[in-house]
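Hi R.,

Here's the chain you asked about this morning:
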Amino acid sequence: MKRYILTAIMAAATTIAAHAIVVQHVILKNGTMLHGYVQQAASGVLTFHSDNAMVVVGAAEADITDQPTPIARLDSAWVAWATKNDAFEGAGSARTLTLSTIILRSNASTPVLDDVADSVAVEVEEQPAAKTSGRRDFDYYLRQKRTISGVHVLERGAQLRYLEQTPNDYTFTWADVASIRIDRRPRTALSGIDCTYELRNGRTYEGQPAGETRTTLSLYIDGAVQSFNIDDVVKYTYHGINPNQDLVEQSELLDVVRKHNGATVRGIIIEQNYSSNLDKDNYVLIKDQAGAIQSLRISEVAETMKEANPAYRPLYDVLLEVGQVMVNRQEMTAVGVSERDYVLTLDSICRSNVISAATGPSTTIAVEYRTPEAQNVELFRLVRLTPTKVKKNIVYSFSYKDLSEAAVRPTAVTTSVNQTTRAEYLIPSAKDIVYALYNDKTHKAIPVVINR
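And here is the predicted structure, written out as tokens:
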């Protein structure tokens, strides 16, 4: 029985920018590099949605029209690339970058593929896979696009090589692929998908998917990459790395599985099983957005697709030193507190300690800090300050009674794997109200000015 991977890599994205989804880097055998994700896969053919790409055309049979483009008309991606690579012509505001329109000609010499490559389409003994004889390679599919605009040509002559900074879709077969690579999640990522591989010998390995070739899979495990032969892996289980967050919120992409009867199932693939020689025992489990889990036989699957997940809610940590404090991811300054007649007065309110109020009725104050003490420790007490005029100056203070009876309690206190504790407080979204985060041990306070 020949078997293939359904998902063409389950990955956690590391790109934070809202407009870009880059979870995979595909390197083709001709040198092309695509950055994005596999959007669709069936019968050995992959459609890849790239955010940016460096594309190599097999032969230089193309008409190229160059257009010097003023820097004022370039988007930030082109400006950054041209600056880094010294690609501008001219100086100052008169600088230009040559962008080109490429018209590709058909190439009758494109070879025909006769082999069956590993694919997201699945072949089992009871259901032979679709034949790939007569299917063309990447160069053939590329030429079907005919016209490619707004690219920067890096090489012309015996071969054509160009850089693209705008989203596009490319089609190729598994026979074209040298490797698919995934970047390691940053330490600050608190969301993402990990995978457990169960091997034929009974051993299991868990980690973040690291990449894939035609015959191998790999995981990031303990700071290194561990690779496996695809045929040795009989079961794949996917799970979110954050137990306090829903699985769907941790995946930047949704899986869309189309059955041979035309029906589709949309959600997150959480398990694939290839452990049996019998078709009825090999299955895929898909968890939909409502939390229901559906089981499909592998032989029922015609193709898989991926699409942007509107429910994706990535969480990112911040790395802090002991004693360092951030409020809503802003550095804050602590001030001294003087006491008289059970009233505590701040030395100043540090007008730089300002956060913006939310547009709704309430605002979240997220306080992050690191302490050598036990986890989930509430280090501060949040209290609203009272302004008082003293000798033409306004001073801000609070009382011990305020601390005991009116302090705002956190709605949640959690400590991350990086030992960063996060305490969240909910307050009314009023204008120009001043609060203080008071530390009983240090007898200091962090004033927080709410601006609207």
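One quick note: Helices lie at 76-84, 138-143, 400-405.

Cheers,
M.
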